[in-house]
C-alpha cells in the first residue's frame, strides 16, 4: 500500500487482488502500468511481474 511492493500477487486477477484487501470494488479505479482497467475486466486481467498498480478510491462527503 502507498507505494509498497507486494509479493505473492503475480498471476492473480485484479478482482482477486482487490477482494483479498477488502477493497470497495464499486468505488475504485485501478490503473495497471498507466492504463485504466475497466471494471468489467477485473475478473480476467492478471497481474504480471513488475506491474505497477495504482488504486484510486472515491469517497463521498459533504
UniProtKB/TrEMBL annotation:
<dbReference type="InterPro" id="IPR012675">
    <property type="entry name" value="Beta-grasp_dom_sf"/>
</dbReference>
<protein>
    <recommendedName>
        <fullName>Thiamine biosynthesis protein ThiS</fullName>
    </recommendedName>
</protein>
<dbReference type="InterPro" id="IPR003749">
    <property type="entry name" value="ThiS/MoaD-like"/>
</dbReference>
<dbReference type="InterPro" id="IPR010035">
    <property type="entry name" value="Thi_S"/>
</dbReference>
<dbReference type="InterPro" id="IPR016155">
    <property type="entry name" value="Mopterin_synth/thiamin_S_b"/>
</dbReference>
<dbReference type="Pfam" id="PF02597">
    <property type="entry name" value="ThiS"/>
</dbReference>
Amino acid at each position: 500500500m502507498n507505494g509498497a511492493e507486494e509479493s505473492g500477487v503475480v498471476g492473480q486477477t485484479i478482482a482477486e487482488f482487490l477482494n483479498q484487501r477488502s477493497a470497495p470494488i464499486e468505488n475504485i479505479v485501478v490503473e495497471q502500468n498507466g492504463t485504466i482497467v475497466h471494471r468489467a475486466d477485473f475478473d480476467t486481467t492478471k497481474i504480471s511481474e513488475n506491474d505497477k498498480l495504482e488504486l484510486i478510491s472515491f469517497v463521498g462527503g459533504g
